Every structure is written in structure tokens, then in C-alpha cells.
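// run 5 | inverse folding | seed 20
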């Protein structure tokens, strides 16, 4: 009974805070995925451009941010960003330390990591497009912008959905590392609740169950999006893919 009260069924429950922390985790992950999508699209375009400089820069980005530990990147963004903001503040006449907000630092760090994986997802999706479709579009006089809008982007999005689902799950788990910045996401709140009540097993199990719920629901969403995208494609195109 005491455990139920601690989890939110009594006046001293932590349930509402865990739910709020879960929503914060979703907000951070969604923001990070959006940042990563922009970075990933730019890097994928660079790696597909054929320009040796752009290809090299793209390769460096994906190699570094997929090879360096995620926690180190979060520390670099959080503390490095805070130092940069403080330096800017001093240049403008403000004295004192200015910390980079935990949400911004966490979403940016996870977004940069996510972008290194999304770049490869987008690049692979583009390479999977049938060359015959692109040649046919050129043959009937489609200009580059129209080919991008009507053929390339819809196909890339459809083919990238499974990979993006995996990147979402990766970012969702990486969001737990943002707890080191003090952001009250799910991992941080579970730690605080466990430390305050000394019920470590209870709250870490509760946090794990909420993460499992998020990943299970995410799987259903991405699987549904994939089925919907595939239904909108002709059978011949699906066969080629």
C-alpha cells in the first residue's frame, strides 16, 4: 500500500512527477529528432554530392559523432555551450556565469548524435530509389526541383521510415543521459524519487516500465506509418524497393 501511495495513489505520490518527466522525455526526443533530421538531410546531400570536400566533411561528421560516446558529447555541448554563452554575456557587459538551458543543451546534443545516424538513413534511402524513375522524370522534362518534390522526397521518406524508427528509439534511450545536466526528464526524476524515498528498486523499475511503454508505443506508430506509406505506393514500386 505504501508503494502505491509513493507512485501516485496517495497524497505523497510521485506519479504525477513521473508522468510529467515522461512528457519531458518525449519533448526532448522529438526536438532532437527534428534537429537531427535537418542535420542528417544536409550531411546526406553533402555525401551524395560527389564533391570531394563535401563528401569528406560529411564522412568526418558521421564518423566522429557515431564514434564518440554520447555522454561526452552531452558534456561538451552543455559545458562548452555554457562557456560560450558566458563569454558572449561578458562581451555585452554582463558579469557572472550564464548556463545553457538543460533542455536546449540536451536536445542539441542528442540531435547532433541523431543527425549522424539519420544522414546514413537518408543516404541509403536515396540510393535505394530506382534509377529508372529518375531517368524517366528527366526524359519527360521534369526540372530538378520538381523531381525532388514529386519523386525523390516521397520515396526517400517512405524508404527511410524503418531506419528513422530505429534512430527514434536510439534517441529516446540517449535522452536518459541528459539527466547529468539536471533536466527533470524520466531518468532524473526516477533518480530523485529513489534517493528521496530510499525505494530504489520501486522507482527504477517504474522508470524502466515507462521507457518500455514509450518504446512499445513508438514501435506501433512507426510500423503504422510504414504500412500507410507502402499502401500509397504502386505494387511495382514496392517490388523494386
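// decoded
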Amino acid at each position: 500500500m505504501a508503494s502505491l501511495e509513493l507512485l501516485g495513489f496517495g497524497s505523497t505520490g510521485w506519479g504525477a512527477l513521473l508522468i510529467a518527466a515522461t512528457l519531458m522525455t518525449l519533448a526532448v526526443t522529438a526536438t532532437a529528432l527534428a534537429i537531427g533530421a535537418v542535420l542528417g538531410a544536409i550531411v546526406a546531400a553533402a555525401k551524395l554530392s560527389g564533391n570531394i570536400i563535401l563528401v569528406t566533411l560529411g564522412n568526418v561528421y558521421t564518423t566522429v559523432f557515431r564514434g564518440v560516446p554520447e555522454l561526452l558529447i552531452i558534456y561538451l555541448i552543455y559545458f562548452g555551450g555554457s562557456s560560450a554563452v558566458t563569454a558572449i554575456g561578458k562581451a555585452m557587459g554582463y558579469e557572472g556565469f550564464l548556463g545553457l538551458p538543460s533542455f536546449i543543451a540536451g536536445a542539441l546534443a542528442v540531435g547532433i548524435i541523431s543527425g549522424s545516424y539519420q544522414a546514413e538513413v537518408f543516404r541509403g534511402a536515396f540510393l535505394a530509389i530506382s534509377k529508372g524513375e529518375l531517368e524517366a522524370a528527366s526524359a519527360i522534362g521534369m526540372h530538378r526541383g520538381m523531381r525532388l518534390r514529386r519523386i525523390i522526397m516521397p520515396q526517400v521518406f517512405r524508404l527511410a521510415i524503418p531506419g528513422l524508427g530505429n534512430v527514434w528509439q536510439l534517441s529516446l534511450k540517449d535522452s536518459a543521459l541528459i539527466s547529468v545536466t539536471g533536466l527533470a526528464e524520466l531518468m532524473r526524476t526516477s533518480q530523485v524519487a529513489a534517493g528521496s524515498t530510499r525505494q530504489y528498486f520501486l522507482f527504477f523499475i517504474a522508470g524502466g516500465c515507462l521507457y518500455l511503454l514509450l518504446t512499445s508505443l513508438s514501435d506501433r506508430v512507426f510500423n503504422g506509418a510504414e504500412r500507410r506509406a507502402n499502401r500509397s505506393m504502386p505494387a511495382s514500386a514496392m517490388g523494386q524497393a
